[in-house]
Amino acid sequence: MFNLIRRDVILQKKMLLTFIPFIGFFIFMDSHPALIFLVASIFIPFNAYAYDEKAETNILLNSLPYTRKEIIASRYLGAIVYMALSIAVTSLALFIFNKPFALSDIAIGGGLFLLFTACTFPLFYIFKPGYISSVVLISFIFLAGIGPPIVIFLAENLTAITDFIASLSIPVIYTGAAVVIMTLYAVSWGVTTIIYQRKAF
Amino acid sequence: MENVVELTNVTKTFKDFSIKNMDLQVKQGFVTGFIGANGAGKSTTIKMIMNLLRPDAGEVKLFGLDYKTHEKAMKERIGFVYDGNVFFDGLNLKDIKRIVAPAYKQWDDTLFYRYVEQFELPLTKAMKTFSKGMQMKASLAIALSHHAELIIMDEPTAGLDPIFRRELLDLLQELMMDGDRTIFFSTHITTDLDRIADYIAFIQSGELVFNQSIHEVAENYALVKGGLELLDRDTEKAFIHIHRAPTGFEALADNMKAVKSIFGDTVVIERASLEDIMYYMKGGVPHV
């Protein structure tokens, strides 16, 4: 299992060199720290799909002594591991460049990453190879564009919910969000496992 | 345990093609060649043996175990070589080894480097720069370095030049020296099989036509030539397929003895090569 997670580093050796300039760009552009944590976390796990969406990779992995369950588990656990590492590196970079950030930025960036992962990972196994990357990219832009107005619209029109959320204390909101995200992540993991087990290569 | 691979009543249906009730056994310690025309179902069968595809019905057992409960243990014991390159083509052989080796408990680094040296493979060049023959050798080096008991190959000789093909066959022969190893490989180049196969499994349109030792095939199948006047409704039954020409007939029979007793010296009987068998079988529906 650990080997499956480690393989992403071997595969992306050269890509990793662009990681630092990639974060550097966002820091230089003075982006919000939470956004920097989000894009930094996305880097490795989503690059990995450039390899994994190929049929040959799936033939290889499934011919090696791994079960399909393990292959999917390595993706979901790997995403968490690489998120943690990316956040650590990003924090260091922010610290070096003397950009202030709070723990809540890490929490929001990490939370959004996990949410995004939970929503998109199953797509990689539903759509045909080749289409997926564009589907995910478009959905990311689409969500980024259309998401905030929808949230604002809902906030204005569903006052019962907004009032309810506003009445909660900060720790409760954070805990609630964490529970919701973790549940979604677990459900997504389960769904992807079922999809993958039914696949033919 | 005599059969390393055992397919029982396996059925798999696709939109335009299906494998029907296939029973296939691969004997331990022998080389079994799996032949059939393009699209006959060779790759599909191999994919089912590798658990890349699940059969709609029937049972696939390797080493007497099934994939539901022993998937990892089974794959530890299999070495695989596929037609195309399944390894990440941007990586060099050393990195591919770093990904593949930890997957196997029995991985043997010394053995791997011995094959790398024997095959003269570069360790630091990307796989995509390899020629077809080198890719095949690289796949083979990886397949052989974890002491696999069963080696499954899908069209390993396709696209190789004659010299490479010969080298590969010699190597396989060498591998069979040490005891219990089993090789199962598909090909449509039948001359490969005359050199190394012990058993021949022949598949056509998703159905297994026969699975016999190479000697049985040689003894049973015959190419018969004779005058058209010899053919009538009864004598025709001795043949699987008959090709008629104005000058006489040429037919394939799967029971040489019966043909001899029916026609005696009135016809010319020759041994049928695997290619003859494949060619004539394709031309007609076999009698049951």
UniProtKB/TrEMBL annotation, chain A:
Q: Where are the transmembrane segments?
A: 72-97, 103-127, 134-153, 173-196
The cellular component terms of Gene Ontology attached to this UniProt record, alphabetical and capped at eight, are:
membrane
Query: What keywords appear on the UniProt entry?
Result: Membrane, Transmembrane, Transmembrane helix
> Which superkingdom does the taxonomy of this entry point to?
Bacteria
- Coiled-coil features, chain-numbered ranges: none
Q: Which source organism?
A: Evansella caseinilytica
- The protein in question is named ABC-2 type transport system permease protein
From TrEMBL, chain B:
Q: Which residue ranges traverse the bilayer?
A: none
The ABC transporter domain covers 5-230
Record's keyword terms, sorted: ATP-binding, Nucleotide-binding, Transport
Q: Which CDD domains match?
A: ABC_DR_subfamily_A (cd03230)
For this protein, the record's PROSITE patterns field holds:
ABC_TRANSPORTER_1, ABC_TRANSPORTER_2
- Highest taxon of source: Bacteria
Q: Name one GO molecular function term.
A: ATP binding
**UniProt-listed SUPFAM superfamilies:** P-loop containing nucleoside triphosphate hydrolases
Spell out the Gene3D superfamilies in the cross-references.
P-loop containing nucleotide triphosphate hydrolases
Provide the protein name.
ABC-2 type transport system ATP-binding protein
Please spell out the taxonomic lineage of the organism that makes this protein. Answer: Bacteria, Bacillati, Bacillota, Bacilli, Bacillales
